[in-house]
């Protein structure tokens, strides 16, 4: 009979990787939203700095999300959430650069 401790540790490890990925996505999005709020209150932050500071945790979050990948439907869907949260943060400068820069200049 096979020990049940090994699969449990692997699942916990994947869950920890997923949580790290989502935490990094939250951190990156917090940078973006806080910089937009700061610009609303009169403090200007350059968009390139916002993209750089939010992009670093998003890149690491994508790597964590890819290590979470597993062949079961549940894990694929959970990983898709983490990948989307981090990848959308990385795609922000490409998709909404003009709008973000306009909002930060106000």
Shape: elongated
The major pleated sheet works out as: none
Q: What is the number of E strands?
A: 0
Radius of gyration: 17 Å
> What are the secondary-structure elements, in order, as H or E?
HHH
Spans where pLDDT lies below 50 across 5 or more residues? none
Q: State the helical fraction.
A: over 70%
Counting DSSP H or I runs of 4 or more residues, the number of helices is 3
Structure, described:
The chain is mostly helical and 106 residues long. It has one domain (5-105). It contains 3 helices and no strands. It has helices spanning 5-40, 47-68, 73-105. Helix 1 (5-40) runs antiparallel to helix 2 (47-68), helix 1 runs parallel beside helix 3 (73-105) and helix 2 (47-68) packs antiparallel against helix 3 (73-105). It is elongated, with a radius of gyration of 17 Å. The N and C termini lie far apart (66 Å). The mean pLDDT is 88.
What are the SSEs and their pairings?
Elements: H1 5-40, H2 47-68, H3 73-105
List keywords for this structure.
106 residues; mainly alpha; 86% helix
Explain briefly what this protein structure is:
The chain is mainly alpha-helical and 106 residues long.
């Amino acid at each position: 009979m096979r020990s049940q401790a090994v699969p449990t540790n692997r699942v916990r490890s994947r869950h920890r990787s997923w949580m790290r990925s989502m935490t990094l996505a939250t951190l990156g999005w917090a940078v973006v939203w806080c910089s937009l709020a700061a610009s609303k209150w009169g403090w200007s932050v350059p968009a390139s700095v916002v993209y750089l500071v939010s992009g670093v945790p998003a890149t690491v979050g994508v790597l964590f999300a890819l290590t979470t990948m597993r062949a079961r439907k549940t894990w694929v869907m959970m990983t898709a959430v983490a990948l989307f949260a981090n990848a959308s943060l990385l795609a922000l400068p490409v998709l909404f650069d003009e709008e973000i820069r306009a909002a930060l200049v106000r």
